Amino acid sequence: MEKVRLSKLMSARGICSRREADVYIEQGSVYVDGQPVRELGTKIYPWQEIVLDRAAQIRQNQQVTILLNKPVGYVSGQPEPGYKSAISLVNNDSHFHQDRSSLRFVPQHLKNIAPAGRLDIDSQGLLVFTQDGRIAKQLIGEYSQIEKEYLVRVSGNLTREGLALLNHGLQLDGQALKPARVSRLNQDQLRFILQEGKKRQIRRMCELVGLNVTGLKRVRIGQIRLADLPEGKWRYLGKNESF
């Protein structure tokens, strides 16, 4: 049996992301079969035991994940000049007063935090920021199976055949899309449930069946719902919550 890079194996087991694994290895926080490993690029057998030391486990448990109800007009990631970043909305004043977590906002919670998924500038709703590589991998990793649910307002005439194509049969960028669950809520609103997130996917899917998207709101990621979180407000992912 061939050996595997330690950081890759740590990521595959859900211990942390590869980037985080390299940091822990350099810090001497990773033990393989009870022995510390400090050399980057170390390879081990897939059956060997990997453990983080107590200090690293504590640091992991202190990492935060933030849930924001992003308004239209903000970009998910690093903005170009003239645009506003959604992370700029995360501050003490905009913290949802009904947040049930025990955490209090401190600037340290924004260190090394990144969006786990995109929501384009013209869309609103649930956007996740996290310091935890395990959560990022769960939401946007190559093999993620997490559902995302959207309420989509459209204009145009949706035929029965068009609705069937939205559920399965469309291609984007020369690749077949995964099956989706798309249903009509009323004359001008659809519900989309997807397990992938190509750039502007819903808008482009709708264009292919003759529809124009006039409003798009993400209301759920996995088991986490937007619920009563007001627009422009944010809260922490609770310790008893998971996607």
UniProtKB/TrEMBL annotation:
A Gene Ontology biological process term: enzyme-directed rRNA pseudouridine synthesis
Keyword check for RNA-binding: yes
Record InterPro entries: PsdUridine_s_RsuA/RluB/E/F_cat (IPR042092), PsdUridine_synth_cat_dom_sf (IPR020103), PsdUridine_synth_RsuA/RluA (IPR006145), PsdUridine_synth_RsuA/RluB/E/F (IPR000748), RsuA_PseudoU_synthase (IPR050343), S4_RNA-bd (IPR002942), S4_RNA-bd_sf (IPR036986), TruA/RsuA/RluB/E/F_N (IPR020094)
Top enzyme class: isomerase
UniProt GO molecular function: 23S rRNA pseudouridine(2604) synthase activity; RNA binding
UniProt keyword RNA-binding present: yes
Pfam families in the record: PseudoU_synth_2, S4
Domain RNA-binding S4 intervals: 4-63
CDD domains per record: S4
Catalytic activity from the UniProt record: uridine(2604) in 23S rRNA = pseudouridine(2604) in 23S rRNA; uridine(35) in tRNA(Tyr) = pseudouridine(35) in tRNA(Tyr)
Keywords of this entry: Isomerase, RNA-binding
Enzyme Commission number(s): 5.4.99.21
Cross-referenced SMART domains: S4 (SM00363)
PANTHER family reported for this sequence: PSEUDOURIDINE SYNTHASE FAMILY PROTEIN-RELATED, RNA-BINDING S4 DOMAIN-CONTAINING PROTEIN
Name of the protein this chain belongs to: Dual-specificity RNA pseudouridine synthase RluF
Organism: Nitrosomonas europaea (strain ATCC 19718 / CIP 103999 / KCTC 2705 / NBRC 14298)
Lineage: Bacteria, Pseudomonadati, Pseudomonadota, Betaproteobacteria, Nitrosomonadales
